[in-house]
Amino acid sequence: MGFKMGIVGLPNVGKSTLFNALTKTAAAQAANFPFCTIEPNVGEVAVPDARLDKLAEIAGSKQIIPTRMTFVDIAGLVKGASKGEGLGNQFLANIRECDAIAHVLRCFEDDDITHVEGRVDPVQDAETIETELMLADLESVERRLQNLSRKVRGGDKEAVEQERLLKAAQAALEEGRPARTVAISDEDRKSWRMLQLLTAKPVLYVCNVEEASAASGNSQSARVAEMAAAQGNSHVVISARIEEEISQLEPDEAEMFLEEMGLEEAGLDRLIRAGYALLHLQTYFTVGPKEARAWTIKEGTAAPAAAGVIHGDFERGFIRAETIAYDDYVALGGESGAKEAGKMRAEGKTYVVKDGDVMHFLFNT
């Protein structure tokens, strides 16, 4: 299980350049005019995790299979998108299918690249997009409330519950607040997700800066950081140009290039870590001579559900999980050493999987 992140932003902010870099493809045409991306481009990337390589080395695994993350490059939104301006309706539908939204914000000056609003102001750009998404949500909520009215009058329990949640969203949106600011109980969380509200999705601001500011950001990215903190959202600083260059290099060359630029790691790593934190995701591993593999689960996932990520039969017939913490596996030289030291644990159905656990599931067929 990975997750799907929609890359959105105004035209010409560097979305397609970033997408190309992240997926190491030229599928998204990066051109200096609005709507150069007509259909959403979907790209899957391996999630880099040094722990997986270490586990494979210790176990002598023949194959390494990382977990994957999906990026969707969604064409540039413009003011009026909620009313169908530009290619608005199509894009809004594409955003609904994503788990999270990465707002790419232009935080660089470049006279050769046109800004659709004729100025560089990432905070204003973020507000423009947020407003369009809120307007689209408000229209959707009002339409759904109208359609539910007859069922509510007839006492339909499901309709009454849905109306309650829609009215909570409507109240927030009418106050100019996104739906994610609404406090939702654990009992309502599944029904809330089913509403598929655009502004209920977690947001990560991606500050696209010039190459010289890739390591420490600039005054524009600092403004975005301040805005993100005030909203309780996350942000990362990336130079899409640098990421595009790195994506064309061999691993050794990429490492040297990063050093020369004063960067400790590629922007992809920072973006994925921020995305994981945003969606409360974590990784566990299965390791053996044949393969070392990473699996993505939500924080708080119990062992049977974690097993179900591999195969539904593992969850249905779950007996127990043999579990070794990553640090113990490495320190004790693998499964045998961990077992001898008493560090392999037998965990039952109530065990909550920890990030980095090395697991083997026993199940009935």
Report what the structure shows.
The chain has about 375 residues and is α/β, with parallel strands linked by helices. It has 14 helices and twelve strands. The protein has helices spanning about 15-25, 50-60, 90-95, 120-155, 155-175, 190-195, 220-230, 240-245, 250-260, 265-280, 305-310, 310-315, 325-330, 335-340; strands at about 5-10, 40-45, 65, 70-75, 100-105, 205-210, 235-240, 280-285, 290-300, 320-325, 345, 360-365. The chain has a six-stranded mixed beta sheet, with helices on both faces. Strands 3-9-8 form a three-stranded mixed beta sheet, with helices on both faces. It has a three-stranded antiparallel beta sheet with strand order 11-10-12. Helix 7 links the parallel strand 6 and strand 7 (about 235-240). Helix 1 (about 15-25) packs parallel to helix 8 and helix 4 (about 120-155) runs antiparallel to helix 5 (about 155-175). It is flat and about 60 Å long. The two termini are about 20 Å apart.
Helix content: 40-55%
Instruction: Report the principal-axis shape.
Output: flat
- Largest β-sheet summary: 6 strands, mixed
* Euclidean distance between termini CA atoms: 22 Å
Give the radius of gyration.
Answer: 23 Å
For the secondary structure, the number of strands is: 12
Strands of the widest sheet, in order across it, are: 2-4-1-5-6-7
Low-confidence stretches: 25-38
Oligomer: single chain
> Secondary-structure element order, as H and E?
EHEHEEHEHHHEHEHHHEEHHEHHEE
Mean pLDDT: 86
Question: Treating each run of at least 4 consecutive H or I residues as one helix, how many helices?
Answer: 14
What structural class is derived from the secondary structure elements?
alpha/beta
Strand content: 15-25%
